[in-house]
Design a protein that fits this description.
Strand content: under 5%
Radius of gyration: 22 Å
Structural class: mainly alpha
């Protein structure tokens, strides 16, 4: 266990990774693969919903601009 601690500390300090990356890697290494897969799926679904919402907002804006131009 001591070897693992030393390895991780050395990796953290020598690699000069962002603190959030170090924490994320540590968390991921302790999680079951099924949990990680579920988390990725949730994130991808949320990103898709965000993109869809943004696209709908853009479409509404275009319709308003086109509607005002035809008056």
């Amino acid at each position: 266990m001591n070897t693992e601690i030393v390895r991780r500390l050395s990796e953290s300090f020598l690699a000069r990774k962002e603190p959030t990356t170090i924490v994320a890697e540590a968390l991921l290494s302790s999680l079951d693969g099924n949990i990680i897969d579920a988390m990725v799926e949730i994130i991808e679904r949320e990103q898709a919903n965000d993109l869809l919402a943004e696209s709908l907002r853009e479409d509404e804006l275009i319709e308003r601009v086109n509607g005002e131009g035809s008056k």
